[in-house]
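Report of the visiting student (M.T.), summer placement. My assignment was to run the structure pipeline on a short list of targets and document each run. The first record concerns Galactose-1-phosphate uridylyltransferase.
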Amino acid sequence: MNSELRFNALRGEWVLFSPKRQGAKRPHDIFEKKRPVSPKSKCPFENLEKSGNLPPYFQFPESGSWKTAVMPNKFPGLDTSPKEHILHSEKFHMTIAGYGYHDLLITKDHETRFSELTEGEIFDVFQALRKRYLQVSGDPKIDYISMFQNWGPSVGASLYHPHMQIIALPVVPSHISHELVYSLRCYEKHKSCLYCDIIKSERKGKKRIVFENKHVVAFVPYAAQEPYEVLLFPKEHEVFFETASDAVLKDMAIAFKKVLKSIQKKLSDPDYNMYIHTAPATDGGEYPYHHWYIRILPKSNIDAGFELGTGVQINTVFPEDAAKLLRLQG
Ligand SMILES: [Zn+2]
Ligand SMILES: [Zn+2]
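After the run finished, the structure tokens were exported:
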């Protein structure tokens, strides 16, 4: 198959699809398979008091034995101590204080990874994220809240115990603002949500669909930056993750588990990053041109000189082939 350059309309970026670079490797050979289970005895989340973690903000389920807890990170990237906002500003140098929140979400069982949680337990994880998001977004100094999971040492997880992180920032980061610029441009031009248009087109074309249920659709994007990346969208137009209904989050939990299981099985259990992409938490911002989603990125290659120098990713697997391999029955 010949190489192609495809345009990612959400990010305004080109991706180079060049299947020949994969050589004779089969899908599961392009992923690393090193993820040793570290012993429970060394895990700081087995005894929170003893390991010096601050008490959780809250737990789910709210009564009885907990399965998911949200608590402050013991080693936060930023905190709420700064009183000033702008510390320094001149022609091209600007410094603002590292004000924000850095929280951890952990699930109870050391050995039960996210794909092995029940759908109800994943729903609890989403509910806990939504609850913490709403608490933190009430702080007027917070402009964006990032929620993500790193699964495996090759993608940045320093601890084995299944967990997610929630980082609230006093700025809107560039990946988010770039997407807002592109989706706003399309909204003004076509008078519709770019994400809704993409969802409609993917559901009609079917060839990149991985899974669908009543409220959620999962597909490999047309210009996927990484082999086998999957996006999961609420089908109805929804700007913010934090206002998603229980019905949508329940279907998202089902879809998320199915897609993770498929990636685990069909690709020989790669490490992965996942994050929730939602609109900024800026006061009063409505963002009618935005649509929240979850992105799962199985880890394969690292960015080298070409990617770093140009922003053009090289992907060795066409999205249609990736979706065909990962596809699940509803
Ligand atoms: Zn543990
Ligand atoms: Zn939409």
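Residues 7 and 14 are 5 Å apart (CA to CA). Helices lie at 119-137, 174-190, 194-205, 246-266, 305-310, 319-326. I thank the supervising group for their guidance throughout the placement.
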